[in-house]
Amino acid sequence: MGSAVITARAAATFEPVGRSVATARAFVRDTLQGWGYNDVVDDAVVLTSELVTNAVVHAGTAADVLCLRSRDGVRVEVADHYPEREVPLQSSALDFGSPDRENGRGLLLCAALAARWGVEYSPTRKHVWFQLNLPERPVGIRSAGPVLPTSLLPVTDQRVRVAVVQTDRSGSIAAWNDDAAYLFGHAAEQVTGKQLTDFVAWPHTPGTNTGIVDALQLSRWEGSYGIRGADGRIIAVYASHLRVRDTDGEPSTVCLLVREDERAVLQSPVRAPVTDTSENRTTDPFEVFIGSPAPDDLDGLLQRTVERARDMLDADAAFLLLATDDETELEVRATTGLPSARQRFARVPVEAGTGRYGSARMPAVHEDLNAVRGAVPLLTDTGMRSVVTVPLKVEGRLTGSLGVAAEAAGRYTNEEALRLQFAADRIALAVESARLGELERLRRGSLSFLVEASDLLAGTLDRDQTLALMAQMTVPTLATWCAVYTIADQSSDPYLSYVLHEDEDLIDGLKALLSKIDPPDPVPTPGARVWAAPSEAGHRAALSTSTRSLDHDAPLSMSMATRTILATAQAVGGETVVLPLVARNRVIGMLTLGKPSDDHFRQEILELAEDLSRRAALALDNARLYSERMAISQSLQRSLLPPGLPDVPNVEIEVIYRAAGEGNEVGGDFYDVFPIHDGAYGFAIGDVCGTGPEAAAVTGLARHALRLLAREGFGGPAVLERLNAAILDEGARSRFLTLLYGELWPQEDGSALLKVVCAGHPLPLRLRQDGSVEAAAEPQPLLGVLEDLDLYEEEVTLNPGDVLLCVTDGVTERREGARMLGDDGLADVLSTCTGLTAGAVAARILRAVERFAAEPASDDMAILAMRVPEPPHNV
Questions:
Q1: Against a cut of 0.70, is the pTM above it?
Q2: Chain centre to alpha carbon of residue 137
Q3: From CA 403, how far away is CA 389, in angstroms rounded?
Q4: Bridge partners (DSSP) listed for residue 741
Q5: Distance between CA atoms of 106 and 85, rounded to whole angstroms?
Q6: What is the pLDDT of residue 179?
Q7: DSSP class of 732
């Protein structure tokens, strides 16, 4: 970092696996936030994500990430370990790559976002580093207001209540005075120890505004937000925060809060304009109108602008709108004296009609709005009669509109329009600069948001989890509530699959409301479209409930059901939009986003939601395809398993089967026990080369062929020879097969006679009553390799108490490093099973195999245990 002094460092190494990218992003985000570098977190996360992806995914090596802090900013280094990377010549041009490629965008982003960056090579590794500088922050300026006559002081309806709330280092409430209890209805003992964020309704737009957690960490902060009262209502407050520390150095935040309409009590006074009489020169006109210093954020600048415009023309209300990128619409961004929550982000056309009164591009004075209905849509049904509006222009381009209004008619003339236009000209450039800064922050925040969303969605193939992720990523970041509809196929109606609201208590009511109305039409047209049905249904439900309560002379305290209906109606009372979920040229569902009463979405949020919907649609369709294929695979696999084990007289039989691989029920190992004829039973245990569907196909062929040939009367050698010919007939798809096949005849004396053929399979082991273990057959050639086989069968007699154990090589070849269980290890375990039932023998063998190694088994396993029980002893 040049000559800058390093004040802190953090380092971590990430393995060359896909999940390391998300882990590296979290490491950098946590590190920079811990250092208080929130201004550069989003850029650092995006750049780190690209560079670590290049290392662990494309180069396939571990990535070393180093974060260095100085007073001016932060430097992040990402190094890979690619051993054969060519050191470029100094004269060669550096290839940044293309933004449309899947890789190679890291250097391009470094060049675009970083203050400085570079690449350093060595024979064994490559370092890519970038430096992000902190924005310069002006030192705070203290100011004092003038002495005002009593008649000009703010008017309050009653004694001013100032809530004093103190939070500790973690944001928990440590103090709550009597005025706070009066204003919000919560007693001190009810809130002490709880997080302040549990009670705050914060107007936060990702990437543009300071969040409540960030505001509590600032040394000083002023602004508006809401507090949830004991009755569930949001109480608008104006707050002043001060960060302090006690004598032990423990930090805390003191919050002073008043009702929003009493904000003058706490709001820092604006510096009055001054005149330099010595040189007969006044201060800058912008400072005269706005005051000094100007707010750092766009929302604060716009709010101060409308308040000064209202005061300048002695108006009852004022409003400011900003133009969209195509300059065809104006978006409401700040109001005073109007229901701002209802109007914020609402849109009106630039050209509302013909003539000078119908265009926002020209100043306009309306002496009486009652005479020209709808001339200013923003003021409809607000009680305003006269209004003057002027455009905000930068280099001749329309960037916004500023207006003031009064409840009386005929209040304004062209003279007031000229005064307001003069003020608009002074602030237009500052507003446009702040707007562009906000858009840039939103763009960077959106990029970081989409990177993390893509990573989360790609990390699961579970349909229900994908639906939950879709909703959780939109609420509350993009919307207050969200509903996801899915469409199973072209002939199916949309189905309400998931509902989420930022207030968990409203989810059930919202789900019930949406279930009663028809779902939105599955239109494949891209982009968000407004859906009015939820708002209308909520309004009807609230009206019906209120009417019914009045008819029955309900008490003042509403029932819980009534509260739920009214709260749900308010939750869906704002703007609701629907975005199609389109994947592989088919609408597979709809993503529905909603705002509370009279609230609107801003265009940048809708564009971000549209980007998210495209990624979510593909993830949801991938999850659907995966689920369908898993269902088909499991159904086919289950058809390859025996329907059940037959009851063999005087013989206990137990089978344990484990297929390797996630989602596999059948692999290359198989078993079967089935009746043949005249008291004879066939049994088999085999292992097809490989695992997965190809091996399972040979498994099905072998199992069904064994049953068919045995029931046709062929003996063991003939059965296996014909099965060998069938496997070879498969040609290139054939796989060799090891197989232990036998026939079992229970005897009248309580023993059992077995005839077995062991074709390349692990030898069956016989456990006698005295604990001795011996092989019960000799090895013979495996199947699927040679055309001519000379097989023979061997007879084995199991006496009462004897056990015959048959396994596949997944048992004997179980490994832990260089150690292997082997035939001898299996025999040692079996020797400890004297006197156990067949089921207990199989369970002990499985337990010994699992405990032999810490890692999960990588091969299929089958265990077949047969035991001749001892006759009961006569007492």
A1: no
A2: 33
A3: 4
A4: 684, 757
A5: 17
A6: 93
A7: G
Give per-residue burial for 827-860: e unless 16+ CB within 10 Å, then b: bebbeebbebebeebbbbbbebbeebbeeebebb
The closest alpha carbon to 376, from 341, 413, 414, 338, belongs to 338
- Nearest of 161, 178, 183 to residue 265 by alpha carbon: 161
Name the residue among 85, 82, 77, 40 with its Cα closest to residue 60: 82
Q: Which amino acid is at 602?
A: R
Contacts of residue 773, Cβ cutoff 8 Å, sequence gap at least 6: 765, 766, 767, 827, 830, 831
Compute the average pLDDT of residues 705-716.
91
Tell me which DSSP letter residue 63 carries: E
486: enclosing H helix or E strand:
strand 481-486
Dist CA 751 CA 766 (whole Å): 14
Q: CA 766, CA 740: separation in Å to the nearest integer?
A: 14
Q: Using CA atoms, how far apart are residues 222 and 235, in angstroms rounded to an integer?
A: 17
Distances (CA, A) of 191 to 54, 178, 250, 260, 412: 48, 13, 21, 22, 50
- Separation CA 674–CA 680 (nearest Å): 9
pLDDT at position 778 is 93
Beta bridge partners of 725: none
Q: Are 583 and 526 a contacting pair, CB within 8 Å?
A: no
Give the position of tokens 């979290």: 26
Residue the block writes with tokens 């811990």: 34
Rg (CA), the chain: 38
Share of the chain above pLDDT 70, in %: 83
What lies within 8 Å, CB to CB, of 279 at 6+ separation is: none
pLDDT class of 315 with cuts at 50, 70, 90: confident
CA distances (Å), origin 277, targets 283, 287, 486, 550 = 11, 17, 72, 68
Is 538 strand, coil or helix? helix
Distance (Å, whole) CA 709 – CA 16: 52
Among 628, 629, 721, 707, smallest CA distance to 673 is for: 707
Q: Which residue has the tokens 């097989």?
A: 791
Does residue 578 sit in helix, strand or coil?
strand
Q: Which has more confidence, 400 or 158?
A: 400
Amino acid at 727: I
The answer to whether the beta carbons of residues 534 and 572 sit under 8 Å apart is yes
Both tokens of 112, joined, read 């675009």
Neighbours of 369 (CB within 10 A): 20
Residue 528 token pair: 């968000």
Q: Which residue has the tokens 């010994």?
A: 848
Residue showing tokens 């709010």: 303
What span, in angstroms and rounded, lies between the C-alpha atoms of 149 and 152? 6
Phi, psi (5° rounding) for residue 704? -70, -35
Per-residue tokens: 116: 């400085």
Q: Which residues pair with 94 in a beta bridge?
A: none
Q: What gap in Å lies between CA 214 and CA 32, rounded to an integer?
A: 13
Running DSSP on this structure, what letter comes out for residue 504?
G
Burial of 84 (0-12, 13-18, 19+ CB in 10 A): exposed
Amino acid letter for position 746: P
Q: Has residue 13 got a pLDDT over 80?
A: yes
